[in-house]
Amino acid sequence: MKVGFQNLRMDDIAKAMDVSRATMYKHFSSKEEVIDGVVRMYTDYLDKLEDRTSNDSEQSFGIWFQQIFEQSVMLVGQLTEVFLLDLQSAYPELYEQLKEILNKREQQTLKFYQDGKHKGIFNDINEKLILLQDNLLLREIATTKYLVYNQTTIKQVLLDYYQFKKIQLFKADKLSSVDDSNIGPRIDHLVNKFNQTL
Q1: Rounded to the nearest 5°, which phi and psi values hold at 122?
Q2: If pLDDT is split at 50, 70 and 90, which confidence band does 141 have?
Q3: Is-contact 105 49, C-beta < 8 A?
Q4: What is the pLDDT of residues 70-100, one digit of tens each?
Q5: Quick one: pLDDT at residue 111?
Q6: Residues 166, 65: contact at Cβ < 8 Å?
């Protein structure tokens, strides 16, 4: 789905999912049902980012930062422009559902950055630029071309970007509110997902 689906047949989808046609047809009777399932999977994943309370501790900002980082990487890796354009033209109602949950996530993320600035945890950076940076920079550094040209791995790039973003966002005296021991397994999971699609 990463490269779009307009030209895919059910056989192609079954092959990409590494299942037999018979197994696929047990669960999905049409390509539309497959796409609906994919969109539902994305919306469920994005909905997992729970609402924060107003009296969050400094440590909770570290936890939320890591959750947002993980989601940002997953979104860039899975929701490509080609997929979104295909979805918009072929299934506009599914596109609107997905766009709605993406907009909700964006608003939650902006509020998170604003709250962190107001509480003195984050540096005074324009939060809209942070979102744009994630979208543009993550898309670029996660490409095979970038990895090969810079003789690096997706794991190293994600670790470097995580450190870059943490230092950029958190004030120096608040960096200790982020427990970096939690990010290793998350990055390993992301690396496995990326390796499946490269």
Answers
A1: -105, 155
A2: very high
A3: yes
A4: 989 988 888 888 888 988 998 899 999 999 9
A5: 92
A6: yes
Alpha-carbon span 194 to 154, nearest angstrom: 8
Alpha-carbon radius of gyration of the chain = 18
Domain ranges of the chain: 35-197
The answer to whether residues 183 and 160 touch, using CB atoms and an 8 Å cutoff, is no
Average pLDDT estimate for 19-46: 83
CA distance 126 to 78: 26
* 36 CB-near residues (< 8 Å, 6+ apart): 91, 94
CA 180, CA 165: separation in Å to the nearest integer? 13
Tokens 């509480």 sit on residue: 119
What is the C-alpha separation between 164 and 168, in angstroms, rounded?
6
Topology (CATH) of 35-197: Tetracycline Repressor; domain 2 (1.10.357)
* DSSP single-letter state for residue 179: -
> pLDDT tier at 52 (50, 70, 90 boundaries)?
low
**Sequential DSSP letters for 122-158:** B-S--HHHHHHHHHHHHHHHTSHHHHHHTT--HHHHH
Give backbone dihedrals phi and psi of 170, rounded to 5 degrees, phi first: -85, 140
